[in-house]
Design brief:
Radius of gyration: 14 Å
Strand order of the largest sheet: 3-4-2-5-6-1-7
Helix content: 25-40%
Number of domains: 1
CATH superfamily: DNA polymerase III subunit chi
Strand content: 15-25%
Largest sheet: 7 strands, parallel
Distance between the termini: 25 Å
Length: 144
């Protein structure tokens, strides 16, 4: 069963959210886990793509940004994939930045939700939390 972790940031700065996503992706990569970062905003994916190249000088996180038809690129060997589309079946960790729970989340061993304190982000996160909770998924909460 998919384990769901909520990482709750104290502020509402999108840059802090992006940096935390980069750190989580890097950590998973260092543990040889393939990651799929899902967002429903292409601008956010573009920002993450850039940030993964530059968020730390001593870090290299191999990644690629896929088209909205991500499943068509399932043979992509990069350990970190970013897309608004659907993932292939070789990923173990999902980082969900979309406003809703993606229908494919249960394919993953872990789903990570990174939340900031903006009103809309908090409300959407509460809805996702209730969704997972009502279905019995194990939930973890991390105040950052």
């Amino acid at each position: 069963m998919t384990r769901v972790d909520f990482y709750v940031l104290q502020g509402n700065d999108d840059n802090h959210r992006i940096m935390l996503v980069c750190k989580l992706a890097e950590k998973a990569f260092r543990h040889n886990q393939k990651v799929f970062i899902h967002a429903d905003k292409s601008t956010l994916l573009d920002e993450l793509d850039k940030a993964l190249w530059h968020f730390r000088e001593d870090s290299f996180v191999p990644h690629s940004q896929l088209s909205d038809n991500a499943i068509d690129n399932a043979d992509n060997a990069d350990p970190i994939q970013l897309s608004a589309g659907e993932p292939g079946h070789d990923r173990r960790v999902l980082i969900n930045l979309a406003s809703k729970v993606p229908p494919f989340f249960s394919r993953f061993e872990r789903t990570l939700e990174v939340i900031n304190q903006s009103t809309s982000d908090r409300e959407q996160a509460r809805e996702r939390y209730r969704f997972y909770q009502q279905r019995g998924y194990p939930l973890q909460h991390h105040n950052m």
